[in-house]
Amino acid sequence: MFIPVKDAYLELTPEEFERYSLDLLFEQTRNLESLVFEHDKVIEAYDGNYQIDGYIEFTFMGVKYKTLVECKHYKSAITREKVQILHTKIQSIGAQKGILISTSNFQSGAIEYAKIHGIALIQLTEADINYEIRDRINVIMAQGRNPFNYGKPYSGVLISKRDVGITCSYLSRSNTSLEEFLKIQTEKQSY
Question: What are the TM regions of this chain, as residue ranges (predicted)?
Fold first, then answer.
């Protein structure tokens, strides 16, 4: 993993954080067909109403897919339970995808659960600061790198669990990892 975010990110209000996060996601998914974005949406489901920080709808292979976005403006690490709550909302609403964006890092149980259930985890981090990537405890894979996001103050980091370790991919105009993640997961569900 990389160094957790600094308190400076927490100077964003919760609404500013949500809007910034959705702008980042829009930039990442703008090439998807019939793309719809909504902020602060209330969705009625069979078991009640759900307030969702962000809602994304797109068409892929002729099928309409719904993605729920939850934004967590926290100082402490995101636990597995937070990812489970998003997964429950996905099931209740009948959505196919979920994205959880945080100002803090994710516990290993949250990352594992997200991998199993096809939920994207993104940590917002300052652009133009040094970071380290760790594959395992006390094993630094890369050091002294600066993420670049075309003059924007923050970058998103897509965190993925692999068979061996965890990968971190900085999202930007030239890196469409999130769009690919959504397409790959969608293709698996289409069969």
Answer: none
